[in-house]
Amino acid sequence: MLAIMIDDKEIKLPEDKEFLSFFEKRILQERKKKSRHRLYIDLVITAVVVFIIFSVVAGMAIVQGDSMKPNLTNHSVALFYRLDKTYDVNDIVIFNLPDEKEILIKRVVAVAGDTVDIDDKTGELKVNGVVKAEDYIYGETHSREGGTEYPLKIPEGYVFVLGDNREVAKDSRDFGAVECGELLGKVSFEIKIVNG
């Protein structure tokens, strides 16, 4: 026999299977409703956290073209960190040029105070008079007709960026040094998309 207390009085309930089954179903329904509600709350919290991370802390961009070949591949996803605003030589950075909509991904080869020169005869990049050792590039480094004039001293608050695939990259040889305020962040790693 099942009993419940109401106003200090014990009321005996029949042990009817349908009666008990009804209450078990109600309890299960309430638990499912609470668990579904909790799931919705968890999903909303997760979405807010992901939104904050990708709008404040990190970002991602799809690599377009072969200008960073062989190190970043066309159509791969580059994840970048937004919060560190100090840029050093060899950092791979993401930025927008002021008058263009496309996002560019390039390597910093010189920072404020450095002097950049390009030897068109040898295809070499010189920073502060020293040939820069670049075992990560594809092709030779040549200046561009109508582009940046050399030697170029990089002003305070600017960096000089080049694509790793020097023969096809649109970079500081075309548009000059890039203001650090235009940089969106540093590439942390790449997610390669496999075609197949």
Task: Give short descriptive properties of this protein.
rod-shaped, single chain, seven-stranded antiparallel β-sheet, 196 residues, 2 helices, four-stranded antiparallel β-sheet, Umud Fragment, subunit A, alpha+beta, 23% helix
What is the global morphology?
rod-shaped
Output the number of helix runs: 2
The CATH topology of the domain at 63-191 turns out to be Umud Fragment, subunit A
Given as residue ranges, the uncertain stretches (5+ residues, pLDDT < 50) are none
**SSE string:** EEHEEEEEEEEEHEE
Determine Rg (CA atoms, Å).
31 Å
Please name the CATH architecture of the domain at 63-191.
Ribbon
Strand runs, count: 13
The proportion of residues forming helix, as a percent range, comes to 10-25%
Q: Taking strands numbered 1, 2, ... along the chain, how are they ordered across the largest sheet? A: 3-4-13-5-6-11-12
Output the CATH homologous superfamily of the domain at 63-191. Umud Fragment, subunit A
Estimated structural class: alpha+beta
Name the CATH class of the domain at 63-191.
Answer: Mainly Beta
Mean of residue pLDDT values: 88
Beta-strand proportion: 25-35%
Explained architecture:
With 196 residues, this protein is α+β, with helices and mostly antiparallel strands. It has a domain at 63-191: Umud Fragment, subunit A. It has 2 helices and 13 strands. A 7-stranded antiparallel β-sheet has the order 3-4-13-5-6-11-12. A hairpin with a 6-residue loop joins strand 5 and strand 6. The mean pLDDT is 88.
